[in-house]
Specification:
52% of the residues lie in helices and 9% in strands. It is an alpha/beta fold and 383 residues long. This is CD-NTase associated protein 4-like DNA endonuclease domain-containing protein.
């Protein structure tokens, strides 16, 4: 048990001056911006702290997004100060961007609540819930009446009053979206991981664990750009470049060529090609020597799989000939194998040319086919 004034107790301070809630809001905003970055389409730009918390700009369109992690502060209504500020901001964005189709999204973890005062209510439930209905098919007059009685800026009130019914729906109600009840921070991070895994696996063929490790780097980049100098802009290209920097290792071209050359040398064991097992004499047809010949062919089977189908056919012919010719042709085949191992230019896969031609090195289907033919030859009874 700690005594009063010990180091285990936190220092005392004025509760109202603590910035924990504000820091939580900033963290949530950074991750929400990160998720928006992952979801950018080709040609779209993500602006941070330029027009709203973040904004997505494309050709002829601008979508501003306000992010609020305010679930702990209670429900929101049309009369909540942040909601009224968002409406004022939308009108300001429209006036500043006359050549763009402007829309605004108010994203908050708080749920929609009911208005307290009667003059601020609409006939069918909360005003923010009725907003979407009025934008589509419901009577918009009650909502317009409530808005004109709200504490909005005069420019906003004039903007609303000047719109006819159709323009009020299409140019105002349909352009503002109230995304209430958004996921909490833990769920938001989980959504980022899901998006990152799908994006990185398709764009850069990364595993899920590799993709998850990229999240801190993305959030750090968003924070750096948001707190930096204008234009504070990100695009899909920046995302791909960041993933490449953190998920790939650059190797000098000289080192890469050496690595490829060394790997190529290890493909066929040199000792197996330069010093093949001894072959029985062509004048000795005893069962023991015939068995030795078969053992020799079996030992060279792994080498044969990498040399090519031409040599496989030669060995098959040698084993199917008469006794007197077997040893001679087998020795000829071994000599040809040593020559071919040092120069494979003339050896190609037996598969027919196609969209996935495998080149000089025998592919897996060819190796399997050669193995079957050789085993059939080796088990064929001698006469």
């Amino acid at each position: 048990m700690s005594s009063p004034g010990s180091d285990d107790e936190p220092p005392q301070g004025e509760i109202g001056r603590q910035a924990v809630a504000a820091l939580g809001g900033y963290v949530y905003q950074v991750y929400a911006s990160t998720l928006a970055w992952l979801r950018l389409s080709d040609g779209e730009l993500l602006y941070l702290e330029v027009a709203e918390d973040y904004a997505i700009a494309s050709r002829g369109a601008l979508t501003g997004v306000q992010v609020k992690n305010t679930a702990g502060s209670g429900r929101v209504t049309l009369q909540t100060e942040d909601v009224r500020t968002a409406i004022d901001t939308f009108v300001d964005l429209v006036s500043r961007n006359p050549d763009r189709v402007v829309s605004l999204r108010y994203l908050t973890t708080a749920e929609i609540g009911h208005e307290r005062m009667i003059e601020h209510r609409v006939p069918k439930g909360p005003a923010l819930a009725y907003w979407r209905q009025a934008a589509l098919f419901a009577d918009s007059a009650p909502l317009r009446s409530v808005l004109l009685k709200s504490k909005l800026k005069q420019d906003t009130l004039d903007f609303i009053a000047a719109l006819d019914e159709e323009a009020f729906r299409s140019q105002f109600l349909k352009r503002i979206h109230w995304l209430c009840g958004a996921p909490n921070l833990a769920d938001l991070i989980s959504d980022i991981d899901d998006e990152l895994i799908e994006f990185a696996s398709t764009q850069r063929r990364l595993t899920s664990s590799q993709a998850r490790r990229l999240r801190p780097a993305l959030a750090e980049k968003v924070l750096s750009v948001a707190s930096g100098e204008p234009p504070r802009r990100l695009r899909k290209k920046d995302l791909l470049e960041l993933i490449d920097r953190h998920a790939r290792i650059d190797v000098p071209i000289g080192h890469y060529e050496d690595l490829v050359a060394n790997q190529r040398d290890k493909t066929v064991p040199q000792e197996a090609l330069l010093a093949p097992p001894a072959v029985a004499s062509s004048q000795d047809f005893s069962p023991a020597n015939i068995s030795t010949m078969r053992q020799t062919a079996e030992e060279l089977l792994s080498v044969l799989d990498q040399i090519g189908s031409v040599l496989a056919e030669n060995l098959q012919t040698a084993l199917e000939d008469d006794r007197a010719g077997r040893s001679r042709k087998l020795r000829e085949w071994l000599e040809e194998g040593r020559r071919a191992a040092t120069n494979r230019a003339g050896i190609r896969c037996r598969r027919k040319p196609g969209p996935k031609r495998c080149g000089r090195k025998p592919c897996s289907p060819c190796a399997t086919s050669m193995s079957r033919r050789l085993k059939a030859c080796l088990t064929k009874p001698t006469s």
